[in-house]
Every structure is written in structure tokens, then in C-alpha cells.
Amino acid sequence: MPSCTRTIFPTTTLSPECDGPGSEAGERLPEVGVIFGGPSPEHDVSVLTGLQAARELSQMSGYSPRGLFWSKSGDWFEVDPLSEARDYLEGKPRSASPVQLILGSEGGFFTADRRKAKRLAIDVALVCCHGGPGEDGSLQAGLELAHVRHAGPSVAGAALGMDKYAFGCVVKEAGLPALPRRLLGESSGSIDFAGPYIVKPRFGGSSIGIEVVPDLETARALGSRSVHLTAGAVIEPYKPELFDLQVGIRSWPQLEVSAVERPLRSKSASERSSEILGYRDKYVGGEGMVSAPREVPAAIPDRLRERIVDCARTVAELQGLRGLSRLDFLSDGESVWVNEINTIPGSLARYLWIEPAVPFRQLLSELLDEAMSRPRRTFETAGADGSVLQGASSIAAKLA
Fold this sequence. Notes:
about 25% helix, Rossmann fold, Dna Ligase, domain 1, four-stranded antiparallel sheet, D-amino Acid Aminotransferase, Chain A, domain 1, seven-stranded mixed sheet
């Protein structure tokens, strides 16, 4: 397979074997594989985020976006980066071409022709998948094993962000303010706070599967029957007086925290009685998180804003922030509690960057610049020199 030599954006120089359409003298625009969709309850929102990013990249000088659609069944397709949301109503668009992700030192994305598979000349991947294996470190690990550079969280950072229990433990251990959070099991004997409760999927993004329940008996019953809680659930005290506050955090070119947002709940008649900020409040507005109702910057005291920024900077260090995340808090207007982190937020949290003002194009450009500038992850084999194998007796004898 051909090997490609790459330099940092905005100019990418490749060997002739890797030239893309329209290249001259071995040079072409850096190709960005925009990955979206995925086998996740947040599949539809991921499609919106990916299409928004691909459309913006197509209008920027110096980039050539390629759409990489990850279907609900886990299959891969190359799609038109300028396709529309309606093209995905029944799954993949009609013009989609099957591709495959192959691991290994010569890996990457390839056409699905088994007789003559051809590598897609992708320089860096922009992951726009929310929830599931696209945000829990699974996809990130696959890309790194395939030697594909990617923007966004690291494997470890994504995994920690998706595990609400582990993230809550890390936050508490660091001394940051957080409400008590326990695992919900059959016994639930370790739950040392009174109801009512919020029950959440342990592994999941957004607000899908979250319910308010009055007592432990109801919580256990919910945990046993909800499809969103089968992989595990956490339980927290429900505090109706608390409201949500959110900030964006990005790691490149330096650590920055966005304006503080107060997301608002739906004002439709059917949603006025909603007890928590739900999935419909966040996403069902036509453009994902961009069109959700919000107050930004939030009308909160300066000292509360400063506390949120301090907590965000600490969480960024704890989580090993890479890329752009959204950190969610709960507040009563006086105090604040760290809630959870979204390592690939809806619409890439572009609507939060008004203080300081950062245009969407700049966010995307610097996300990609970070992915290309940071050292590629390598896997260490020092110590595996064969001495253990030489000294080992017969495996057959050991099994006898």
C-alpha cells in the first residue's frame, strides 16, 4: 500500500500515489473525513452535527471534506459531504458507497471492493458522533489502531466522559462540588440519601433514558425494564430547585472556557410540566443544539461564573481534555455542582463561544490543527524481546 508523507495544515504534501482529484505536482488540499451517525440513540443528532461541520468545511479555503457515514447497524459508507438531513431518513443515502475501516500500520478507510480495495486519502478525521461507541472511546481506539489521526477526545478521555459513575468519582476525589451519585443495583443498599431520585444510564450521553422517580422501589423497577439502563445505571438525589448551566472548554491553541449558558426548557404546552432538561429541549428544534432555547451569557452573579470557570479548568486537567467538550453544572443561583461532561457535544458547542468570540470556522480549523500537531499515539513494545518465550516450557505440557 502506498505511504503518504504529511505536513501540518493548511498545506498537505503527499506522494503521487496518494494524490487526490485535481492535485498538481503531488499537492492537494488536506482531506478531512467527517465521521457522523453511528450505532447510538443519538444517531440522528450526530448526523446533524456532522452535516453542519462538513458544510462549513466545504466553504473554508484549504480543506476538502469527505463524508463518512456510520450507519445504525455499524456499517461504513462514504457520502456526499453536502447532503441534507432528509437524505438519512431511511438510513444511508442512495448514492452512498460502502467503505471499511481496516486496522494496522497500513490501515485506514478503504473502498469495500474486496478484489482491489483502495485507501481513501484522508489526512485527519473529525469525529461528530454523539453517544455510544462514537463517544465512549471505541471509535477513537479503532482510529488510532488504524493509524488515522482524529480530532476530539482521546480514548481515555472519551471513556471517562461517557461513564457517569467514574466521572463523578473523579470529580468528588478532586474535591470539586458534586451531588452524591451511586450505582443502582438490585440491593441499592449503599444509597444513603433520600428520594425523590434521578435515574440515569451509567453509559450514555444527552438526556436519553433519564427519569425522575419518587422512591427506590420505582428506581429498581425502572432499572430492570428500561432498555437504556441495561448496561448500568446511576442514581442521584432530585433537587427540583436546581437548574442547568453549561460551558464549553477547548484545549487548543490553549485552554479556554466559553461563556456560561443557561439552557431553557421547552415552552410548549406538552412540555411545561417537564421536571428535567430533556432530549426534546436540547435537540428537537431543526438544527440540533444550535436551535435549542437558551440564555447566553447566563444572567448569574460574577462570583458564580468565576467558580464555574475554575471548576471547568480543573475538570479539563482531570479528564485530559483534548479537543472541545461541554461541561454541565447544576446550580441554585448561589452554589454550583459539577454534573457531567460531553466530550463531543451537539453542534460541537459552537453556539457557546461568544465570550471570547470564536467563529465556527476557527473552532473547526483549530480542532483539526490540534489533531495534526499533537504527536501521533504510539504503542510501546520495549521489553518484549523474546526472552520470556525462550524460557517457556512446552505449552502442550502446561495444558496436559
